[in-house]
Specification:
By secondary structure, the chain is an all-alpha fold. 79% of the residues lie in helices and 0% in strands. The protein has 14 helices and no strands. It has helices at 8-31, 38-63, 65-71, 73-96, 99-106, 108-121, 127-144, 159-180, 182-185, 190-214, 223-251, 253-257, 262-275, 281-297. Helix 2 runs antiparallel to helix 4 and helix 2 (38-63) runs antiparallel to helix 10. The radius of gyration is 19 Å and the shape is globular. The model has no long low-confidence stretch (mean pLDDT 81).
Length: 301
């Protein structure tokens, strides 16, 4: 994607920051689920991101038009998966299921990426990586159960969980295809590629946004709502997507997906800092297991 070489440590740092921004995005989605319709939030998020990014990438987009045109339908598919579909599914799921279930369904992502990397890319993870994902999964389940395994037996699921599962599969496919077609897009700088994906993804969202408006779903342009859209556009879209795409290129799809386990840890920390929700011992224990799993999975042989 980008020709600039980056060390694995810097790539991991970028993935950690991306997960921090996406944890904030989850809090925004939950806090504004009644104020902003899901497709409207996705549409205005990416429209604003395009307005902010286009002045910096318009000229490079024109210079790299031949490489982008060679990608053809692949670029449209990446835009549909990563820009249009994923966020719409996530925001819609947040309207019809609880945050606890969203976190639980998200545990499927690293496993889907591990299997998909082997099938689509021929990059089967090592046994140490599988052990790491096991340890991180235990830490995440410990967080979800709030330190009591018996709580897992009382979990219930609804149609919103199916939407979140579709969102997880969508994101896994986007990341795997981005890695698979990296050779075709390696001459295109990361921000330029992101600009091209947004430029294609916003028109794909437009019919669904108009359908939502026709159904009577609107939101008030208050300071709070506009600030929420601004955060999702700048931090959760431009910065986080660039860091995720780059980390995927440097580390591989399966290893990059392990950073997803940091989302509930950061969500708990942000809830403590911003919402005044106290950190409990199970937060520290679960977070420690997650970090231990990530270190084990990425430890040099």
């Amino acid at each position: 994607m980008a020709s600039v070489k980056t060390s694995p440590a810097l790539a991991w740092g970028g993935l950690v920051l991306a997960c921090l921004f996406w944890a904030g995005n989850a809090l925004v989605a939950r806090a504004f689920s009644d104020a902003i319709p899901p497709v409207s939030l996705a549409f205005w998020r990416w429209s604003l991101a395009l307005v902010m990014l286009l002045p910096f990438v318009a000229a490079p987009l024109w210079r790299h038009r031949q490489q982008l045109c060679r990608a053809g339908w692949r670029l449209w598919l990446l835009a549909a998966l990563g820009i249009s579909a994923y966020n719409s599914l996530l925001y819609t799921a947040a309207h019809s299921t609880v945050a606890l279930n969203l976190t639980l369904v998200n545990t499927c992502l690293p496993l889907a990426m591990f299997l998909g990397s082997g099938v689509l890319l021929g990059e089967w993870p090592s046994r140490r990586a599988w052990a790491g994902i096991g340890v991180a999964s235990l830490g995440l389940l410990w967080l979800i159960s709030r330190g009591d395994w018996r709580a897992l037996a009382g979990l219930s699921f609804n149609p919103g969980d199916l939407l979140m599962l579709l969102a997880v599969c969508d994101w896994a496919l986007y990341t795997l295809l981005l890695r698979r077609w990296a050779g075709l897009l390696q001459a295109v700088p990361g921000l330029v590629l992101l600009g091209a994906l947004i430029l294609l993804g916003v028109p794909l969202l437009l019919p669904f946004f108009l359908w939502e408006l026709a159904s009577g779903a609107h939101f008030a342009p208050s300071v709070e709502n506009l600030a929420a859209i601004g955060y999702t556009a700048l931090c959760a879209s431009l910065v986080a997507y660039f860091l995720w795409n780059h980390g995927t290129q440097v580390l591989g799809a399966a290893r990059a997906a392990l950073s997803n386990y940091l989302l509930p840890v950061f969500t708990a920390l942000l809830a403590w800092l911003l919402l005044g929700e106290g950190l409990q011992p199970y937060h520290w224990a679960g977070g420690g297991l997650i970090f231990a799993g990530l270190l084990l999975a990425n430890r040099p042989r």
